[in-house]
Each structure stands twice: as C-alpha cells, then as structure tokens.
Fold:
Amino acid sequence: MATMNISLPSAMKSWVERQAADGRYANACDYIRDLIRRDRERQEAIALLQAAITEGVQSGPAEPFDMAELKRALREKHGER
Structure:
C-alpha cells in the first residue's frame, strides 16, 4: 500500500481523530479512505447522470406524450387488472 502524507488545519485534524475515536473507524486512515471511496462513488454517479442528460439533449426536441395512450397500450399488452 502506498503512503501519502497530508497536512490539515487543527480543527480538521481533531474532527478526523474524533471520527476514528467514536468506534466507527479503526483509525484516521480508515476514515480518510472511506471519504475517498464515497467521493469516487459520488463522482461516478454524477458522470452517469451527466451522460444521461447529454444523451437526452442530443436526442432532439421533445415529442408530444399522451399518457392516456400509454396506459391504453399497457392495458392491451398486459391485460386489464
């Protein structure tokens, strides 16, 4: 495992140490690794959302949508309940 040294203001250092001390994390490194994992997941989710938005924008102008027709087609396909 690689090592990285970081500098934190005193208030942040105290915060990290408290997070480790409350028992949820084994130590400060575990807390920092969890923050990084969560940030990566968040960035990946944002990228997926942005890709979907871009695809929607590039698909062209919106077309009229008839909810009653959709319901009728679904009832026809899946049977009336």
Summary: The mean pLDDT is 94.
